[in-house]
Specification:
With about 525 residues, the protein is an alpha/beta fold. The protein has a domain at about 10-155: Rossmann fold, CATH 3.40.50. About 45% of the residues lie in helices and about 15% in strands. It contains 19 helices and 15 strands. The protein has helices at about 20-35, 45-55, 70-85, 95-100, 100-110, 120-130, 200-205, 220-230, 250-265, 285-290, 305-310, 320-330, 350-360, 380-390, 405-425, 430-440, 450-480, 490-515, 520-525; strands spanning about 10-15, 35-40, 60-65, 90-95, 115, 145, 150-155, 185, 190, 215, 235-240, 270-275, 295-300, 335-340, 370-375. The strands form 3 sheets. Strands 2-1-3-4-5-6-7 form a 7-stranded mixed sheet, with helices on both faces. The chain has a 6-stranded parallel sheet with strand order 8-11-12-13-14-15. The N and C termini lie far apart (about 55 Å).
Length: about 525
């Protein structure tokens, strides 16, 4: 005799969404596939939108997806507001930070009822069914919750090795047809075999017994691409795999199989963006993907200094990055990259080396120079090391630390205030140039390609890169030579003002080009 069908649960999922939030959307599809009612609310729509959704749907469970740990205070305020407004639903939260720090999170947000740890599709489903049915839920595997004896962590839940068992992510509320050039996110696999010290991906998947890289069946992946192209009109695919080519020969063969399948079905008019490491870039590896639609690559460069790369456990040398850039230019692909100008063990010399590297890597304007400092997120070896050194408060969600050389603290404080808008704002010059370089290199069938636009975009990017690097080098030289200097020093203030003036002039030139490209204007709007 089959077991009775569980009572349908009503679930509201809340999270940040810029590009398609596949984490939330896989949760939604898993719940819906099992017969439950699900609504997705974007936290950027504001607290009122969340309250209205809950008021309309009267959910049994509200699930919060916490992608970025620095948003903990924002989520805490929202959860408290929901309780203050009389929301009685079960409130749970998932994501990397909740999975690694469930005790701290439950203590810091007393209004939460539980934490869903690590991959959540099956855990949230069981939790919602038990709560909707009025059944005991505290022994659900893969959660954390309070008890009279403190926070309880139930035994971990084994993750699925076969990702094709999961239904495709829920996209019913995404109106691709309203976009001029519809863009969708997709994921071909989960996990990463690398052991970079700044990354929590490997430890996250270890938490549910799926260490390494799991790949979906190439034919099933292309089924999803075909659906998005034929049924939803999607023209650009943003692959959300952390490293699309990871896994050596097997990973490359898998990527080539997807490319071959896509070509065989006549889907070459769909354009791809992937992420990968520099040592995975070669003409032989990428050419089959280019034939299938690859147009843009995000490189995990991180540093151009050998000591930095060793601390970050990247297991490669700066010249590998330079060679990857050469190959991408040769294949006429647009690209951008992640870069940590400063990491916890930086020296004045490593910073100088990084600036020299950036001139070689991006001096021609093929890609826009952007940078940050290493953030020691929970679940990373870097965080563990900093806590052991007494340089990091484990309760600090912003993961703040000081450098070993106080002069670098001065440099960082100055960089933060001087480059904040340039590097981090949707309307800043870096984001504008990235979008411009992508758009000017995008060759969509049926649309004219303008080489002059691409060349002008690179010229502006080259100037912007040079201005930024000249400014930082001047600041570094001054800070290195002046004792007891502060980030408020008049000379540094003058440099900040000069950079702002140059960026404003460049921004006017970039805006002239942006105004000619309605597709880019739409993508710019979507990133705000």
């Amino acid at each position: 005799m089959s077991s009775p069908r569980p009572q349908p649960a009503r679930v509201v999922l809340v999270g940040f969404e810029d590009q398609d939030n596949l984490g939330l959307r896989y949760l939604s599809s898993r719940l819906r596939h099992a017969g439950h009612e699900v609504s997705i609310v974007t936290i950027t729509d504001g607290h009122l939108a969340v309250l209205q959704a809950i008021d309309e749907r009267r959910p049994h469970v509200v699930g919060f997806s916490l992608i970025f740990q620095y948003l903990v205070p924002h989520f805490a305020a929202l959860v408290k507001e929901l309780r203050d407004e009389g929301v009685t639903a079960h409130l749970t939260m998932g994501g990397h930070y909740p999975s690694f720090e469930p005790v701290a999170l439950l203590e810091g947000i007393p209004e939460l009822d539980s934490i869903v740890r690590f991959e959540g599709e099956d855990t949230l489903l069981e939790l919602a069914e038990r709560i909707a049915g009025g059944r005991y839920w505290s022994d659900v595997r893969g959660i954390a919750h309070r008890s009279a004896d403190g926070v309880i962590l139930t035994p971990p839940r084994q993750g699925r090795h076969d990702l094709d068992e999961l239904p495709w992510p829920d996209r019913d509320d995404i109106h691709y047809e309203e976009q001029r050039v519809p863009v969708a996110s997709i994921i071909g696999g989960r996990g990463c075999p690398w052991v970079c010290s700044f990354c929590s991906i490997i430890t996250f998947y270890e938490g549910n017994g799926t260490k390494g890289r799991r790949r979906r069946n190439p034919a099933r992946v292309v089924d999803e691409i075909e659906y998005l192209r034929r049924e939803r009109g999607v023209r650009i695919i943003l692959w959300q795999d952390d490293d699309f080519l990871a896994g050596g020969r097997a990973g490359i063969a898998w990527a080539h199989a997807i490319a071959g399948e896509a070509i065989g079905r006549g889907l070459e008019d769909v354009r791809w963006k992937i992420s990968c490491r520099s040592d995975e870039v070669s003409a032989a590896t990428l050419e089959p993907l280019v034939h299938a639609g690859l147009t843009h690559v995000y490189l995990g460069v991180e540093s151009g200094d050998e000591d930095d790369l060793a601390h970050l456990n990247k297991r490669l040398k700066p010249d590998v990055h330079l060679e990857a850039g050469r190959v991408l230019r040769e294949l006429q692909l647009s690209f951008d990259f992640g870069f940590m100008l400063l990491q916890p063990w930086s020296t004045l010399e490593t910073v100088s080396n990084n600036l020299t590297f950036l001139r070689r890597f991006a001096g021609d304007g093929a890609t826009a120079v952007n940078f940050c400092r290493t953030l020691p997120y929970v679940g990373t070896p870097i965080r563990t090391r900093l806590v052991a050194e007494g340089r990091l408060d484990s309760r600090d969600v912003n993961a703040h630390y000081r450098f070993l050389d106080p002069r670098l603290d001065v440099l960082y404080d100055w960089l933060l205030r001087t480059f904040a808008r340039r590097n981090s704002s949707a309307s800043g010059i870096v984001n504008l140039l990235r979008l411009l370089l992508f758009e000017s290199n995008l060759r969509l069938p049926g649309r004219a390609h303008d080489p002059a636009l691409r060349d002008r975009s690179r010229q502006l990017t080259s100037v912007a890169n040079r201005v930024a690097l000249d400014t930082i080098e001047a600041a570094l030289e001054y800070i290195s030579s002046e004792p007891d200097v502060s980030a408020d020093a008049p000379f540094l203030a003058t440099l900040s003002a000069l950079l702002a003036a140059e960026d404003e002039r460049l921004q006017r030139d970039v805006t002239v080009l942006v105004d000619r490209l309605p597709d880019l204007q739409e993508r710019l709007h979507l990133t705000r």
